[in-house]
Amino acid sequence: MAKRDFLSIADFSAAELWRILQLALQMKAEGTQPSLSGRSLALIFEKPSLRTRVSFDVAMQQLGGHALYLSDAEVGLGRREPVSHVAQVLSRYVDGIAARTFLHRTVELLAEHASIPVVNALSDAEHPCQALADFLTIYEKHGSLKGLALAYIGDGNNVAASLALGAALLGVDFRIASPRGYELPEPLWERTLGLAGASGARLQRLHRPAEAARGAQALYTDVWTSMGQESEAAERRLIFKSFQVNEELLALADQKVILMHPLPAHQGEEVAPGLLDRPPSVVFDQAENRLHVQKALLSQLLGS
């Protein structure tokens, strides 16, 4: 059977995404069988991580397999050794690769040269595993996905990209409010609109947070400054100042709204202090669900 990679959430069809979400729910409710006994996953991380590293490591343990963490200092992708060589060597040792990189091209090169499945554990273009956990959380809290309104407030970053593509595939109405110049890239938005044609999802790019939040069942935000953009932090704080998720914005949403954030958060910037530590916040459910969706994903990619 040909290997499958998971570099973008849109690498899978809507039916395949639903299968992963349902399997994740089943594993969460019933426990996990050691379906990957004897299998190994290499974790290549150019960026530090809490949730991504621990969830992948524990996922492999619960599936009966083993995860091997490789830091940037140990591997030096593209510096100490070409990405193509790293991919080919690891293909001789392990059964899969999960890579957390700065450049999306690095993940693509790993996938091009590896004979084993490669998972995007975060790149500058997408964060597909986070989006899987987010859609699982929305489904758990609301009992459905199709036709629900997901409002994203903030930078058109990698998290927003995966959410937009996933929403388009799964039939979730997606609204994103960003400052001018910080919207989702045009090519990605055009791809998203194309996917929405089949699912019936309604998509909007906006510049006013209140317009996006009004009536939304899920209100989502993320940091204004991502890793690698630290030199822009002061400028971004000024530009994004009116894009903070706070009580006033929550009051515009649906009465059963859930507040979402992938963590870590800069409280006092993208979200008002204290909001993430009480309802309607579901940030710790999102974090837990990283484990369950990744178990489901890995079982599909690395299983027999």
In short:
The protein has helices spanning 14-30, 51-62, 72-75, 83-93, 104-113, 128-142, 158-170, 186-199, 209-213, 233-239, 247-250, 283-302; strands at residues 40-45, 66-71, 96-100, 118-122, 149-153, 173-177, 203-206, 218-221, 258-260. It is of the alpha/beta class and 304 residues long. It folds into 2 domains: 9-127 and 290-302, Rossmann fold; 129-286, 3-Layer(aba) Sandwich (Rossmann fold).
Can you offer a commentary on this structure?
With 304 residues, the chain is an alpha/beta fold. It has two domains: 9-127 and 290-302, Rossmann fold; 129-286, Rossmann fold (3-Layer(aba) Sandwich). The strands form two sheets. A five-stranded parallel β-sheet has the order 7-6-5-8-9. A four-stranded parallel β-sheet has the order 2-1-3-4, with helices on both faces. The longest helix has 20 residues, at 283-302. The mean pLDDT is 96. It has helices at 14-30, 51-62, 72-75, 83-93, 104-113, 128-142, 158-170, 186-199, 209-213, 233-239, 247-250, 283-302, and strands at 40-45, 66-71, 96-100, 118-122, 149-153, 173-177, 203-206, 218-221, 258-260. 49% of the residues are buried. The protein is built from twelve helices and nine strands. α1 (14-30) packs across α6 (128-142), α2 (51-62) packs across α12 and α7 (158-170) runs parallel beside α8.
